[in-house]
Amino acid sequence: MTILTIDFEASCLPRHGLSYPIEVGIACDGKARSWLIRPHDDWAGWYWSDEAETLHGLSLDQVNREGLPAETVLAELAAACDGRRMVADSMIDQYWLDTLADAAGQPTPFLIDHVSFLLDEHRADEQRIGAAVAYADARHAERHRAASDALWLSALLDHISARPVVEHRALMRLT
Known about the structure:
By secondary structure, the chain is an alpha/beta fold. It has a single domain (about 5-160), classed as Ribonuclease H-like superfamily/Ribonuclease H (Nucleotidyltransferase, domain 5, 2-Layer Sandwich), CATH 3.30.420.10. The protein has helices at about 50-55, 60-65, 70-80, 90-105, 115-120, 125-140, 145-160; strands spanning about 5-10, 20-30, 30-35, 85-90, 110-115. α3 (about 70-80) packs across α4 and α6 packs across α7 (about 145-160). It starts with a strand and ends in a 14-residue tail after the last helix. GO terms for molecular function: nucleic acid binding.
């Protein structure tokens, strides 16, 4: 089964209050795709953190202007991920997928595994994980945007599983 990595950027971390997804990215084999998510009416009054905005570099105005409706993002994301195993490096990504699906009025289209399951499956020890992190860091230094974070995790998993990686400088559309 093909593994896709997934990452969400959000309005804030939940410790600050109710948070909602503002961007989602997926990656595999050095290719990535991402979507900006326009805040849904159901999220009115939920928290927007200046700290999060500084981290991911997306303003609320930009997300409102350029984001797609939750229904569109969920439909396109579900189609792109159909039949693939989804993996994230944070368990909170499932919460943001569920939040997106709720806003779209749809069931959550898939479950997201935590990267630790794959590390266990490959019996990756601390040294191997450290080498994989260094490998991913060297290839994807830009972080805190959904596509680049998904590419980083994909590179880490490629190194762990010893799959050859096709390196791309630009983000490309998954087919």
